[in-house]
Specification:
The chain is an alpha+beta fold and 294 residues long. The protein has 9 helices and 11 strands. The strands form 4 sheets. It has a 4-stranded antiparallel β-sheet with strand order 8-7-11-10. It has a 3-stranded antiparallel β-sheet with strand order 1-2-3, with no helix packed on it. Strands 4-5 form a two-stranded antiparallel sheet. Helix 2 packs across helix 4 (122-135), helix 3 packs antiparallel against helix 9 (263-289) and helix 4 packs antiparallel against helix 5 (139-150). The longest helix has 27 residues, at 263-289.
């Protein structure tokens, strides 16, 4: 495991066996390799996103093989060729079809097989899409795969398959004199939502912004229904409780507001991601490989 500039909490969660977190260094590229319970300080190469994608792709294609036991100059970056071996003299992923060899075709084929592998984790397949996006300099594919991995920001437009039907439900507690009744759940209509929720377009369609790992986790722990809280739900809950009091239901307290989503709908989102990854990968691999010299 390689860790760089992580806090004590993250270090103890990921590498507790290695003891306290080492002091962070301001020098760019400083990291620690945790192996067999020991943290070893090291210097890593500084790469742009495009260079990192090219390096990963070249490794998969067999173009670059790491040499063990080699390090760069103390306080600096490894010199080109030190710490890695270039099997051929041709760089990959640079967008120059005439400069790519048949080994690159094998690398593309390996990427395609990895994505099509039914036994592989979805997150792994998406990482392959990231690599393919770098290989073919296809920014849209790379951006899509990254968002599917880590989740979509609130400001981003979602693909249509990430908007699923959902029922609006509230959890209610009755604070009766000498008795508290908890656990009551009621389905509500859109018209029962506060004005602020209407203005934000909250309704019976849930935007699924979570990354695929979180979605797979929700599927694993859910029985039949997945509950997701809409943005701003805490404020809506307080307002709905005040409305209950104004309507003469002073003993009623709204505890939570959430979307109740059928588990198959979340599974359908994951299936769509898998299908899209496979389709895009197959198309890009065949299109790019067809232009390469044999």
């Amino acid at each position: 495991m390689i860790l760089a500039r992580v806090g004590e909490g993250t270090w103890q969660r990921l590498a507790p066996i290695a003891g306290p977190a080492p002091k962070s260094r301001a020098h760019p590229g400083r990291a620690h390799v945790v192996q067999d319970g020991t943290a070893h300080p090291t210097q890593v190469r500084l790469l742009t996103d495009a260079e990192a994608a090219d390096w990963l792709i070249a490794t998969v294609a067999g173009e670059i093989r790491p040499r063990l036991g080699h390090h760069g100059p103390r306080g600096g970056q490894p010199s080109p060729g030190r710490g890695m071996t270039k099997v051929t003299g041709v760089p990959v992923g640079q967008g120059r079809v005439d400069a790519v060899t048949t080994s690159d075709v094998r690398g593309l084929a390996q990427l395609e097989r990895a994505v099509l592998d039914d036994t592989a984790f979805l997150a792994s397949a998406l990482r392959q899409c990231l690599m393919l996006g770098g290989y073919a300099h296809h920014e849209a594919l790379r951006d899509w795969a990254l968002k599917e991995l880590v989740g979509y920001p609130a400001a981003d437009e979602l693909p249509s398959y990430r908007k699923v039907p959902a029922a609006l439900e509230v959890a209610i507690t009755l604070n009766l004199p000498g008795q508290i009744i908890q656990g009551s759940t009621r389905r509500i209509s859109v018209v029962q939502l506060p004005q602020g929720a209407h203005e934000r377009g909250l309704g019976e369609s849930a935007p699924i912004r979570q990354g695929v790992r979180e979605l797979e986790g929700l599927i694993a722990i859910s029985d039949r229904t997945v509950h997701l809280s809409p943005p701003g739900s805490a404020a809506y809950v307080l307002e709905m409780t005040r409305q209950q009091e104004q309507n003469g239901h002073e003993f009623t307290e709204i505890m939570s507001l959430y979307w109740a989503i059928a588990k198959p709908s979340i599974e359908g989102v994951v299936d769509q991601v898998i299908e899209h990854a496979r389709t895009e990968t197959g198309v890009r691999v065949r299109r790019y490989a067809a232009k390469l010299p044999r």
